[in-house]
Design brief:
With about 500 residues, the chain is an alpha/beta fold. Helix content is about 45%, strand content about 15%. The strands form two sheets. Strands 1, 4, 5, 6, 9, 10, 11, 12, 13 and 14 form a ten-stranded mixed beta sheet that branches. The chain has a four-stranded mixed beta sheet with strand order 3-2-7-8. The relative contact order is 0.08.
């Protein structure tokens, strides 16, 4: 698209006017006396509005934040602070005070920007840092250049957009969202049959009655939804087909406050369907699966994906995608100046992905069943569980967490603990097991690292909440529900100790 200088000047002027006071916020855009029509009319903003629904101010902020993240470091820092885009909310910038950086007064934001010039450049991994300006000199060339570059990008309109949807996305206030968690895995439709027993063989002529339901599923989707329910800012990287099922998955994710900007919609391709049998005692059997839709290197190398990785506190990863994509993701994470914590679920490959052993040092928490961990550890011969754990730790994984029968056993450099099953009858399911990783991600994203015994106890308790609180509560209410489950268990334990005396 051709960019006209007069358009750039008009967009720059509107942005600089909006930077005053509290900056570019939904409330400001809805109530300001400044004419924001120039910005609302931009083609990129209109496309984003059609894609996300909501209102135009939200679409504008979404586009501005995406394009600002693609600017050179100094320009990005300036527009971030002066427009209060909050691009650093989830960055590991421990020496910075984001309340001052995004203060309601522009003058105070400028003062803090100048004061922390070097630290801000370090936080975004800038290779070259220009000399620190004074507040007066900042308001001339640096600001003009930064806002000009952002205006050019907005006018050109090169933003990541998915196919337009016929439904609306619920409003998500990203300015108050928590730390970013990025999930990479599958999003599929599950055809679930609940039955008394699973037939002994495919050739068996016996029949059994079963109830069935058709619902969004996939290890990636389950983890994304569970983490979002805990109140974090969750981005899912996956792919779905351009069909009714794909649209249903996207609609469901958005209803659960999962960011779907990086979910690719593949034209002329059906969304994968997984057929699953679940018995009354929780035993699950995968019956069949249609051809999966695979992510490509472009999905991870796009500007939007790279910006997401740079802002991510925790990555939740499964082996549902091809080994080459998992390798690429781990290589991207490894080379980030401020790399996120990686939690990996090593399923579902039937063969041991031995070539991924070189990346185990990038994986902070390896979470799986005994069979899954044995499969990823083995090289030339079958290993028992203890041998597999030792092998994985020797190869570099910082923590290995074994999940079995709603219990957790953790082996790491700082924690060796067994968390027993809570005294409650639970029905196993892929969604329940995903909750453990989601809850661990929540603790890792909102507290000091590395994880302690209390964090693993909390994640185990979350699996109990998966059958109660996850269906009833969200955000702080759900966190309180998990805390309540732990308090009840502790009270029961104290009562048992007193009875024994």
């Amino acid at each position: 698209m051709a960019v006209h200088e007069s358009d750039v000047v008009a967009v720059r002027s509107a942005l600089q006017q909006l930077s005053k006071h509290q900056g570019l916020t939904p409330k400001r855009l809805r109530t300001t006396v400044i004419d924001a029509g120039t910005l609302f009319a931009l083609p990129a903003v209109q496309r984003r509005h059609r894609q996300l629904g909501g209102d135009v101010p939200e679409a504008l902020i979404s586009v501005v934040r995406e394009l600002a993240q693609q600017l050179p470091a100094t320009d990005r820092i300036i527009v971030d602070a002066e427009l209060t885009l909050r691009l650093l909310d989830s960055a590991s910038a421990q020496e910075l005070d984001v309340d001052q950086l995004y203060d309601n007064e522009l003058g105070k934001r400028r003062s803090y920007l100048v004061e922390q010039w070097q630290a801000l450049h370090a936080a975004v991994g800038a290779a070259d840092v220009p000399p620190t300006p004074t507040e007066r000199s900042l308001r001339t060339t640096p600001e003009r250049h930064a806002f000009t570059e952002l205006a050019k990008a907005l006018t050109a309109g090169a933003v990541h957009t998915a196919a337009p949807m016929a439904f609306h996305r619920p409003r998500i206030d990203r300015h108050t969202a928590g730390p970013v968690v990025t999930v990479i895995g599958d999003a599929v439709m599950d055809l679930v049959f609940r039955t008394d027993h699973i037939p002994l063989s495919p050739t068996s002529h016996t029949s059994t009655r079963a109830k069935h339901e058709f619902r969004p599923g996939g290890k990636g989707l389950y983890r994304a939804v569970a983490t979002a329910r805990l109140g974090l800012d969750v981005r899912l990287i996956a792919a779905v087909g351009d069909d009714v099922e794909g649209r249903r998955i996207i609609e469901y994710l958005r209803s659960e406050n999962v960011d779907t900007e990086l979910v690719r919609i593949v034209p002329n391709t059906p969304t994968p369907v997984v057929c699953v049998l679940v018995t009354n005692d929780g035993v699950t059997s995968l019956v069949s699966k249609t051809d999966a839709i695979r992510l490509g290197a472009d999905d991870l190398n796009s500007a939007a994906a790279r910006a997401t990785f740079a802002a991510t506190r925790v990555v939740l990863l499964t082996f549902e995608q091809p080994g080459s994509i998992v390798e690429l993701l781990l290589e991207i994470v490894r080379t980030l100046p401020d790399r996120p914590v990686v939690v990996l679920h090593p399923a579902p490959p039937e063969e041991a992905p031995a070539r991924l052993h070189q990346f185990l040092s990038v994986i902070d928490y390896l979470v799986g069943s005994p069979a899954e961990l044995q499969r990823i550890a083995q090289q030339t011969h079958q290993l028992n569980v203890d041998e597999a754990i030792t092998q994985l730790r020797l190869l570099g994984s910082r923590s290995v967490c074994v999940i079995e029968n709603f219990q957790a056993t953790v082996h790491s450099d700082t924690v060796d603990v067994h968390v027993p099953r809570f005294q409650v009858e639970l029905e196993d399911s892929p969604a329940v097991r995903a909750v453990f990783s989601a809850a661990l991600a929540y603790r890792l994203a909102t507290s000091n690292l590395p994880a302690t015994e209390a964090d693993f106890v909390w994640a185990t308790a979350a699996m109990v909440a998966a059958r109660s609180g996850f269906l009833l509560h969200r955000d702080n209410e759900l966190v309180d529900e998990i805390d309540r489950i732990i308090r009840i268990a502790e009270e029961q334990h104290r009562t048992e100790l007193l009875d024994k005396r």
